[in-house]
Predict the structure.
Amino acid sequence: MAQVTSCVLRYMRIITVRPYLALTPVLFAIALGLFPGSLSEAADQPSADQIKAVFLLNFTKFIEWPPESMGRPDSTFNICVLGNDALGSALDQVVSGEAVYGRKVTVQKVDREPSPGNCKILYFGEHDTSSRLLEEPEHGVLTVGESERFARDGGMIGFVIENRRVSFVINRPAADAAGLRLSSKLLAVAKAVTK
């Protein structure tokens, strides 16, 4: 597991240090997917949660948050995990030592909807999809959850697992309503984009 995490983090740092590697959708897909093979039971393959955690961190490189939503320069960039979800553990490992917009990335596990302005990314687990934030997106908060239905119901990005591969769908109007600008590179590698 440590070896997989190390490999995932190495690829993430390559994209951060050499952003020109993400200029084409194909290279971006490789960077996000990291592993061309399907998720397997083999011990050396990352779990679906590890891949989703890498996606969450890498989304930050291809989304522009409104400057006024970022808070003070010394604030943290919070990724909140709503409810009891296994993704939180994988995410803790992936974000360790990482920064977004010059802010330290932290993971907060929350039992209920966080207070406004606390989270920059709010991840909904499989069973935690009822929220006013899906009907009325909070300015500057990216909502991510499980399934295409999550995106259809007002979430911005929904993870999809098909043939044991992790991909995602995007609800662009929901992201626009929250003031988030999604890069064309991110839109190009999504399985589907709602316009």
Q: What stands out?
A: Residues 130 and 164 are 26 Å apart (CA to CA).
